[in-house]
Amino acid sequence: MHFNILTVFPEMFPGTLGGGVVGRALANGIWSYKVINIRDFAINEYGSVDDTQFGGGAGMVMRPDVLGAALDSIENPGKIIYFSPRGPRLTQKMVRGFAETPENQVYTLLCGRYEGIDQRVIDTYGIMELSIGDYILSGGEIAAQVFVDSAVRLINNVLGGGEESTAEESFEIGGLEWPLYTRPSVWRGQSVPEVLLSGHHGNIERWRKQQSDIITKQRRPDLIKENKK
Ligand code: SAH
Fold first, then answer.
1. Ligand 1, CB within 6 Å, residue ranges
2. Relative to the CA of 131, which ligand 1 atom is closest?
């Protein structure tokens, strides 16, 4: 998997993507990225990439001529994604779709700043908008890292535990995860649930499913409706 990342803050990459299992996969060449500094395509020597909004109002908008030149500089852009609160919210199901055929997959990730980008860029390049949640970030860089992290960890062998560890996760199992416990079996007077120490796999599996159902019903009833669709 390869990512072209357009940003005015190149120093923010790899950022969190340089650590943990995703960072190890980067070092091992399982995925790669190239940062394109949007400022290299600025309209003047002051490095301007944005301008005031037509129609008035506060806040600056990233210019289409600058972004167009930056996008055209990429030899193989693959699928172009602009992170924006206006896009559909990224879900685990969508992440699976993006990660499905990891070989030869190229994404170009456009990180917005200021109020966002000129609409004509979105229209001209057929760009997909994607939101990471219903809140406003100061820029798309964190969203891009969320996207890369969630997709790369699904590539075979990126996670230590193999296929199993991703298949068992929240959203993959159709609900939220059951409570997790590890050693010591008694901590500050609290024991872990008996059943987990029983070694009885059938009972353990049933207990986990039950717990998952209860927690999902309490916290995220919307997920249950979603799964019934
Ligand atoms: N004026 C915009 C917000 C701009 S925030 C609005 O009201 O919708 C600046 C940049 O941060 C955006 O261009 C986008 O790239 C990024 N961003 C902010 N919130 C985001 C979110 N929830 N998901 C993905 N990207 C986001």
1. 83-86, 111-113, 115-116, 131-133, 135-137, 139-140, 143
2. 23
The 3-class SS string of the chain reads CEEEEEECCHHHCCHHHHCHHHHHHHHCCCCEEEEEEHHHHCCCCCCCCEEECCCCCCCEEECHHHHHHHHHCCCCCCEEEEECCCCCECCHHHHHHHHCCCCCCEEEEECCCCCCECHHHHHHCCCEEEECCCCCCCCCHHHHHHHHHHHHCCCCCCCCCCHHHHHCCCCCCCCCCCCCCCCCCEECCEECCHHHHCCCHHHHHHHHHHHHHHHHHHHCHHHHHHHHC
CATH topology (fold) of 2-152: Alpha/beta knot (3.40.1280)
Q: Which CATH class is domain 169-227?
A: mainly alpha
pLDDT single digits (tens) 171-189: 776 799 999 999 999 999 9
pTM (two decimals): 0.94
Average pLDDT over residues 142-156: 96
